[in-house]
């Protein structure tokens, strides 16, 4: 089996999920490459060293440029804060590396444009880690939609609800708190949470053509954890929008970190002429399905426990009835990337496809600022 | 429309549910009789008088014999404590009245035998109010079983869980507490709760042939609410049994008043070769259905919201999506009784059919006493 | 007990729910009036006659003016199509009758203004039947909010999802189909379904200050069931809006008749700083409650089975564990109206309060037309 | 970090779950040993070779004796069919190895006795892989019980429902089908599924003193997959029993492979005076909890999403809201074993504790044969 040497840039929460994915993929999937955890890069040397030891990286670095320049590295995987994505990705592409990048690809579509151009010019493999496409239940939803089971689509609804920033005592700033800094993150929940909802939505239901949005910052100022000063909060705490899709259906989207009682409740629902689907990240191993073609008196919402060998990805895991969890979604994405790399197919979403989400998040933020409907940028042609 | 004059014996909780049923049935069902609330009978005169005023009874009595002897009365409906059922029912039958009786029919099968003989000798209409058969979801289950949707049956499970007697401070005795006095009730949860489970089970799954049971009285003595003295508790607080059905399937049954968190959780599940069914009184307007004939990757438990016009009884109520509740089950039973009376069919269960449950509860109590498997009495031939 | 003579205008679906409420209220609630079903009015004489016989009305009429003019009538209850409400209500008020009216009060706030003026000028009792306030679970939610259990509110979400008009073969027009005719109904789902969501929302969370909405008519033309001609559909099939409340919270609202799999799924969720609440009409006897003050590791969403005597309205019904249904909500509203009438309090919502919902639905329709945020009319001052 | 060289005997389904556990444990838990996958042993050489390559074992063997005799091996982990456990474990103990063994420990308590004696005589570490104790939700239940939150216990219920052997066309015999051969497995569902329920039950609720059981073999003969002949089925397809615990509570237990619609539905419920708990393997990341001490009108079953850092084991995984799955339970058990080994504590259950379950399964099978209540063997003293 061919080795694929990984240089990972970033060693936070996403560094763990990606490292785990590359460690586990060969145990469960028959893919033509064996990823090798070659180098981890983190700006804090002791942390990077510990991370390397924990996950079995052969070396660690504190300067990402050294990783990108290392001729032994085949793939640069970017899991650092959003404001660093573009520069790293562009350099990696120019160095001829495969490049994969945690979402959102960058802080906005314009910034992402440079990344798209770089990977396409260099002709290197590239992928955005919109991992919820690889939840088996969501993939089953995709299959059902592609088979035409739902018929004409009328409604799409998605929410991503969290509650971890409600306390006004929570600081903003650096380290694990860069998600509260718009200069670093690009936006608040719009890029962090809504981006997931939008990527899945367009994958399942085609392009979004226009949006009307509202955002809100409930806690207006917070202490900065590095400076110690109370400073204005620059991000959106909540972001909601109405959408029209290219296929004529209507969408409602909402993300917030102020929904008490929900930790990571990403839910989606799609209502078609013939059938409807509901999925929920808090019970990610289930798909709710309603089929109007069922016999009348026996119609109902079916809770499908996605653990059987005929469910997407599941024959690779345990036996029927035994569920998998969140981390497996990354392993699936790694497997698809490695398989695609062998066969000549690109695993989706590529950077170009990932940029489509940036066009929507840009439109959402503009609509909220301008209090008007905004048409989504040019790349939003309906699928 | 013909009038049917009702004499109701008892004005407690069941007096209310039955009075409501007779008041409401003509508003929703096209039946050939109009029940008239003629006389209510209660041993406490002021209570009976108030009850009559509240429900529109034309008169009240404190001596049930006067009601039975009244030539204007067509139907005697018995909702008094269990130890009074037999004597009233037999007298009513001999007086040529129709007789309906709240469950259990009496304190044991031998006592019930006199009631069966009396109504059959007199040739009068009779019915036991095992009302859970008339929950629309349960009736739908019955239809599916009768259509052979489930195939060979392997397992039947039923539980009736309550928690209202956990406090040792609760007294036993008279008035509303006669259910804690074995001399009046016949038994504890066996006759009160398990009887419901058994009636439904045999209706859905045929006769029970033998049982192995255990009972327990967790609080051994309680103050008597009339005498004020602490006296031994004579009833079973919990009653559990394993069963074998005539069709070869296995059953597990359990009833208790010590299941903290459950108020009236009557649940049943039946597993067949091809399909399975679950129902639950706490959400009585839903039926869970699993059909193995569904396409493999789309198999799952379907939650059928039983509110559509093609569901049993539901076309008589509101519009799809709008649920009914507990009391409606009595109205359905009244409707079936009145319709049957017109067409010559008897509404089930008759006293004879109701007695089959007494044979099982007798066997359960005997098994618990003797710590052995007990065959169910002679009338338990498989349906 | 004093008699209260009812003249009911309309004998459709709502005629049944209201007649049932007035029939049942005295059986379960100790109120100072006994409603008497005096006269039912319907435009189809045979139907009105049958309706009268079924529900025990003493007489029937085909001309509502005769009912309004009848000096024996104390209360005019309006359950006819929306375009008739104002004229009838105004005439009834001028005749000195109490007036209650099914929602929405009329086709728009301007039309409702005449009704408000009439009842206030005449000084007569008046009430709009926004019945979901009287679901025990919703009333418990109100209590918790009023007690400050939720703290500062961040989010309010409501949806009312149906699927009964998906088929393009469904005609529009008269009789039971007037809800598809904007000239009669005023609007489509905005007035029919969203109005419920809005009334509950403002009752629980205070006034809505501005909205951004989108509406859609998925099936553009339908055969008229009276003329037989295919005609443009004039109503909104779906209506969605973002809202800002006076208390600073954000709202998302959606109503549709094109959500396959949902019959009458009215759901609401409210997220506060300290606690959150979810309710769902398809299981109306449950309230979901999350309390952040619970011990950390034991936090979770609690499903409260609203059947205990310490739950709103429930001591009037059966025993713990036994659920009530849709129709009971009308009985509660009737009980509150009759009690209020005795004590001098008005049962809410009065016509004036009901008009607040019309201001919002007007703003929603205007926003959808103009593709802009619209401020809600002057009466929308925060509660 | 010290290396701990693993010799694993068996490379089927459980070989995978154990290999994964030892591969993953150091990535997530700070334990003092690093397990090294030294040698895998399987009777089919090509399969064993592939398994070794897939999981990174340094070598493979087809004769377990060679592994046991290898001085480099520190720990023998047994995941082969039940009839081989005792011989391997005894040899491993005599060779001075640590010994861990998949459940059930052997085919019956007498056979297990030799294993217990061997490990205790040799003074080697030993553990039975009753992994459901390490589900975070189940561990939380244990904490709550140990803290006295539930008060006096009245009822314990457990079921393990599967449906994979319903088809009469399924063969019995060798390879993956040894679970249908009593000579190899010891029993059918009693040892395979009920053993899990019993282990958890006694851990949570103390010893079981006596049982009354029924077993059934629904499909009486099946083709043998090796001989091709139709032969009698020797195992129990279903096994049910009533139990009395040493603490006075009553138990109902059931396991079957004929419960259509359930793949691996291990559920448990425990009802105490003050609180109750429900858990369910199909949604293993949730715990249902009812606390009677909650304010009356707000009592209800709480669904606790076990993903927070204050839940057992969960701080080692991802972030709140993100669930883990089945395989993690083995990783937790490996972590506890390795930690315990370092600190001098034994990770439970040891072989001696695991044998207690064998005494109960022996009693269940005897009770079913003899149709009588059977007292559990001597080691079943109440905790």
Note down, in words, how this protein is organized.
The structure is a homotetramer of 383-residue chains. In chain A, helix 2 (45-55) links the parallel strand 2 (33-41) and strand 3. Chain A is built from ten helices and 17 strands. Residues 379-383 of chain A have low confidence and may be disordered. Chain A is globular, with a radius of gyration of 21 Å. The first copy, chain A, has a nine-stranded mixed beta sheet. In chain A, strands 3-2-1-4-5-6 form a six-stranded parallel beta sheet, sandwiched between helices. In chain A, strands 9-10 form a two-stranded antiparallel ribbon. Chain A has 383 residues and is α/β, with parallel strands linked by helices. The first copy, chain A, has two domains: 2-129, NAD(P)-binding Rossmann-like Domain (Rossmann fold, 3-Layer(aba) Sandwich); 135-378, Dihydrodipicolinate Reductase, domain 2, CATH 3.30.360. Chains in contact: A-B, A-C, A-D, B-C, B-D, C-D.
Task: Please specify the SSE layout and strand pairing.
The structure is a homotetramer of 383-residue chains.
Chain A lengths: L1 E8 L3 H16 L4 E9 L3 H11 L3 E3 L2 H6 L5 E4 L6 H10 L3 E5 L6 H14 L3 E4 L6 H11 L6 E9 L20 H4 L3 H17 L2 E9 L4 E3 L6 E3 L5 E8 L4 E7 L8 E8 L2 E6 L5 E6 L9 E5 L22 H16 L7 H20 L3 E2 L8
Helix pairs in contact in A: 1-9, 4-5, 5-10, 8-10
Number of strands of chain A: 17
- The level 1 CATH classification of the largest domain in chain A is Alpha Beta
Mean pLDDT of chain A: 96
Distance between the termini of chain A: 36 Å
Order of helices and strands of chain A: EHEHEHEHEHEHEHHEEEEEEEEEHHE
Oligomer category: homotetramer
Q: Tell me what the CATH architecture of the largest domain in chain A is.
A: 2-Layer Sandwich
Portion in strands of chain A:
25-35%
Instruction: Kindly state the percentage of residues in helix of chain A.
Output: 25-40%
What value does the Rg of chain A take, in angstroms? 21 Å
What sort of overall outline of chain A do the alpha carbons produce when their principal axes are compared?
globular
Query: What is the assigned CATH homologous superfamily of the largest domain in chain A?
Result: Dihydrodipicolinate Reductase, domain 2
Number of domains of chain A: 2
């Amino acid at each position: 089996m061919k080795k694929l040497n990984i240089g990972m840039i970033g060693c936070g929460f996403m560094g763990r999920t990606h490292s785990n994915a590359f460690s586990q993929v060969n145990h469960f999937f028959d893919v033509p490459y064996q990823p090798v955890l070659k180098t981890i890069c983190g700006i804090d040397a002791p942390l990077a060293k510990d991370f390397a030891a924990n996950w079995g990286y052969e070396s660690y670095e504190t300067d990402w440029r050294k990783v990108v320049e290392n001729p032994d590295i085949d793939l640069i995987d970017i899991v650092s804060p959003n404001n660093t994505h573009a520069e790293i990705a562009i350099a990696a592409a120019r160095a001829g590396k495969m490049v994969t990048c945690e979402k959102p690809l960058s802080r906005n579509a314009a910034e992402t444009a440079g990344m798209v151009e770089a990977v396409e010019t260099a002709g290197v493999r590239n992928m955005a880690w919109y991992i919820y496409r690889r939840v088996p239940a969501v993939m089953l939803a995709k299959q059902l939609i592609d088979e035409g089971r739902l018929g004409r689509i009328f409604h799409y609804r998605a929410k991503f609800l969290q509650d971890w920033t409600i306390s006004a005592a929570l600081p903003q700033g650096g380290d694990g708190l860069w998600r509260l800094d718009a200069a670093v993150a690009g936006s608040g929940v719009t890029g962090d949470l809504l981006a997931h909802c939008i990527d899945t939505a367009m994958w399942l239901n085609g392009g979004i053509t226009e949006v009307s949005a509202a955002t809100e910052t409930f806690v207006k100022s917070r202490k900065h954890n590095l400076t110690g000063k109370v400073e204005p909060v620059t991000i959106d705490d909540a972001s909601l929008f109405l959408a029209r899709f290219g296929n004529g259906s209507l969408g409602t989207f909402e993300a917030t970190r102020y929904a008490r009682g929900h930790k990571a409740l990403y839910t989606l629902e799609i209502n078609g002429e013939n059938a409807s689907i509901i999925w929920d990240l808090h019970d990610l191993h289930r798909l709710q399905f309603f089929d109007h073609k069922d016999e009348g008196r026996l119609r109902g919402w079916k809770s499908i426990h996605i653990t059987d060998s005929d469910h997407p990805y599941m024959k690779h895991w345990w036996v029927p009835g035994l569920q998998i969890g969140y981390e497996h979604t990354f392993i699936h994405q790694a497997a698809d990337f490695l398989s695609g790399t062998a066969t000549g197919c690109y695993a989706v979403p590529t950077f170009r496809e990932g940029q489509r989400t940036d066009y929507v998040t840009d439109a959402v933020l503009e609509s909220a600022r301008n209090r008007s409907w905004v048409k989504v940028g040019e790349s939003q042609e309906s699928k």
